[in-house]
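**Protein fold record**
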Amino acid sequence: MSGATRIEDIGQTSVRLPFCDPLGEYRWNDTPEDLPRGVESLWIYGGAGRTLSRQTLTGHWKTCLAVFRRFGADGSVEEISLRVLGPVTQPVSQDTPHGLEIIAARLFPEYAIPLLGLRPSEISDLTPDWPNHLILAGDHLRGLAESGAAAETIAEALLHLISRQIETIAPVASNMFAALQAIREHDGQLDINALTEFANMSARTLRRVSTERIGLSPKAYARYVRHQRLVQTAMRYETPDWAGLAYDFGFSDQAHMARDVKAMSGLTPAALHRQRTGV
């Protein structure tokens, strides 16, 4: 990129990123009061001068609007792209290029069609460019990124952009969306009978409507939610009680949990934990 600009902190922001992974590579905020409707979390990964550890992207059913920014050895901005990060169905182990920074807002899957015009299943395991109807709105973000603005400043602008887009969408209050929220609130452990009560529709209708809206059945979505919550919970401990976690997350036993984690990540629970925590 010609005319690259050095990093500089541009102003103060109201963005809070109170949580950090044990390796200090990834910061996020998933407090609902701090985020616009439709956004599950805000996160920032990497940055100028950073060499990041090799990581495995494990299975999830999430969609993100992201700003990618790569810095040169001298701290100048060399490359910027606006991308959508789709769900991960096949675990991928990858190295992150030196100096890469990702600033992203993770959307609840039921908001992917209203905001992006994309069903999550259409972009699974892909990182396409932002859809055409958001490119113009993203020009301000691109300008901030090129200017060398702090990641938090760009994150605040990203949330503001999403909030403006959300204002054009009718309030989401469908029974099917209530069922998806219930799945998340119960860490993916609600059975189909309980979900049909939340959705006030038959299991067959709920499965059809969910597949139409997010590209996945409620049961399959619940599995992804449970996996992610399990991994996040294990990261809080230097030595997780795997048998206890298997019980807490509704697995029949520890071996059942280990098989599910291996299917989602390609790693055993202990190996994935070591990778995420360095312990």
In short: The mean pLDDT is 91. The two ends are 39 Å apart (CA to CA). The longest strand covers residues 63-71.
